[in-house]
Amino acid sequence: MAKILISMPDKFLESIDKLALNEQRSRSELIREALRNYLRSVHTINSKRAFKNAEILDGLLD
Question: Is residue 45 part of a domain?
Fold first, then answer.
């Protein structure tokens, strides 16, 4: 597994660490899950946008 280095404000990291502790998970797993959810939501938004654009194009071609 690759490792990366990121920077974030101390308060933000404290919030992440508290959440990870409460959920009994590592900081890394919590951040990986957050990024998976973000990627999933972006994919969904882009799919909806592409479908809407296709509908607009169909309407213009009719």
Answer: yes
